[in-house]
Amino acid sequence: MKTQILKLLLLFNLIFIIFTNAFAADYSYVKKKAEILKVGTFEEKITVVQELGGLSSNANFIIPDLIYSLKNDESHDVRMEIIRALERIGGQANKTVPALIEALGDDDWQIRWAAAGALTSFGKKSAMAVPELITLLRDSNDYVKNAAISTLGKMGPISVAVMMDEVAKPLDYADDQLYIRIVCIRSLGALGAKAIIAVPMLVENAQNDNAVIRLESVIALRKIGGDDAMPGETGWLAEPDEMVWPKGSRREGQFLMFVEAKQMVIYAIVNTLLDSIADPDPQVSYSAIKGLVSFGNKALPVKDKLVNFMISGTPIMRRVAIDALSNIGEEADDIIPDFITALSDFDVNVQWAAIQALRIKGKKAVPELMSMLEYDDDALTPNILKTFSEIGNEAKEAIKILLVMLQHDNSTYRALAAEALGEIGEPSLLVINSLNNLTKDDDNNVVKSAEWSLKELNRIFNEKDKNS
Amino acid sequence: MKRLILNFLIFITFITYFNKNIFAENIYVDLELVLAVDVSSSVDDEEYQLQIRGVGAAFRHPDIIAAIESTGGNGIAVAMVQWSDNEEQALVGGWHIIKDVSDAAEYARIIRRAPRIIAGGQTSIAGALTFSIEQINNNNIDSSRKVIDISGDGRANNGVHPMKIRDIALEQNITINGLVIINEEPFLDGYYERGVIGGRGGFMMIAEDYRDYAAMILQKLLREIGMPVS
């Protein structure tokens, strides 16, 4: 027993010695590099800083030296590199964040820009930079403004209140208050469920006289409502300083209460989107429909309106209306014929949306698609065949008619039908023989399609054989 | 016996020389295009499907085929790269020369079935660009236009700043175009404009979310393939 303990101790000692020596070697190596920061040439400094940044958290102890050089080096390029290195090392927030805050006030816009971006690496610890970042929203340089708002948007609940304050300010508060309001609304949307507290304010802004504010509010609302995060399910919702769902929401009874609360919020958002469909500005109307895509069958009350948009809207409206209708679910099965009509839309993106909508419908769409193949329409037939490919195995009912299409005069139809048979993946003798015949076709595209499908069916056949 | 060995050596030398010449000769195309697709953790499987189905659909579009066929028979070379963090990139299915409708359909089939090789990870745009540049430099293909078409939904949070690698690409006459999906970071377009895209005719397009991807990639490919050689 004693011998075993002795062996164990020896092993621990050995590991300790190896570890400390390795660390010492790293430490002295990195410290040597830090010397170059003070006395090296421009090129040497750049190389060293890049190298230190590459060490990530292993270069933690060198942060004070980097901060010193950030404050004192005369070269713009070296200072930019140091900011990037600090971002990558990401440690000692109590020292790094104040240094980056100082850099936010630099005369050089690129330094301000880089520092604002670097603060994202420090998460909640960069909270002390919020006032300076808000000031940067009014910076003379657009890149700096964008970096500041982007960083604020990543801070989470800490910055929600600050951004809400900015949204609440009247438009005549400052010359650029319209811009500030818009970027803050956009950032609130990007925060998703973390900005749920801002929903009433955004609903109000969705009715503003200014079309741009209405548009941004609608987009933000759909992002907040479309975020699946629920109380207790993600880390940030359980953070002690969060403002959205109190920690107690993890308890069973309260959890249900918060689920209901979220549903009420979603109800308010959907109602706003439904109202905004009738907005006089087409972009707002489009965004409202696009928002409904995230809410599935909650768009049911406006199904008829969506069908109207699908038939008579602009191409982009038609596309997004199809997306929204396809997400409604079973209650919109009656519009399968309308989706099929949309396959022959003159806009290719509308056609693609219709193909995808029919793919979602799967087996239910197959009989109608088969019957429409009889019309042999140049605009419709190729897309029906593509849809069978997209539906895949659920379209096996269509095999018989696809075999007939393999004999069609039009080589594009033959190629698409051959491909659909491969995607459906039923390796019957009849299908394989028909495709084999097609490998002698005059058209190279048809031959390649048939060969691909045969390869695919062969693979499926071998897999089935192996499993049986 | 000596004569036999000598003949054998001459034969081997001849074969080696002949093969070397075959492999040394690069294929010439009008455009080398890398489609670098974001598969970091922010991209879920449905969004991945929307991307690859969108690319597949684009290569079936008659305008794309017409643009490819207008390259005077040279065609284009395309490769898809999946990327996430600094160490995670993969070339999906190698390089493909597309000259006509049948090549395009073949490529569409390959892409539509392309598995997600990288399950997630952080976002290293620099890593994606470095890997894409390597693919262009080592593909035994020559062209007058080399383009990396990078799409993503987030700023880099891993690896060096993309600006550095962008500049390396530009030195090698490789253009970088961007397709920015702003569903998560609404100001990402500014970041791409400043730090990612560049080069001759370099441009960027914005998709509101992955549902817009198919429409945007079609427009983007049309612009990339259809751009006249000047």
Question: What's the SSE pattern of chain A?
Answer: HHHHHHHHHHHHHHHHHHHHHHHH
Question: At the first level of CATH, what is the class of the domain at 28-155 in chain A?
Answer: Mainly Alpha
Structural class call of chain A reads: mainly alpha
Report the top-level CATH class of chain B. Answer: Alpha Beta
Protein architecture, described:
Chain A has 468 residues and is mostly helical. Chain A has helices at 2-39, 42-54, 63-72, 76-89, 93-104, 109-118, 130-136, 142-154, 157-168, 177-190, 199-205, 211-226, 252-276, 282-293, 303-312, 315-326, 336-342, 348-361, 366-373, 381-391, 399-405, 411-424, 429-438, 444-467. Chain A contains 24 helices and no strands. Chain A is extended, with a radius of gyration of 31 Å. Chain B is an alpha/beta fold. Chain B has a single domain, classed as von Willebrand factor, type A domain (Rossmann fold). Chain B has helices at 2-24, 45-58, 62-69, 101-112, 125-137, 162-171, 188-195, 213-226; strands at 27-38, 76-83, 89-98, 141-152, 174-181, 204-207. Chain B has a six-stranded mixed β-sheet, sandwiched between helices. Classes of the chains: A mainly alpha (468), B alpha/beta (230). The A-B interface holds A 50, 53-54, 84, 117, 120-121, 142-143, 146, 149-150, 153, 183, 186-187, 189-190, 223, 290, 293, 319, 323, 348-349, 352, 355-356, 386, 390, 415, 419, 444-445, 447-449, 452 and B 53-54, 57, 60-61, 100-102, 105-106, 109, 155, 157, 160-161, 183-187, 190-191, 194, 208, 211, 214-215, 218.
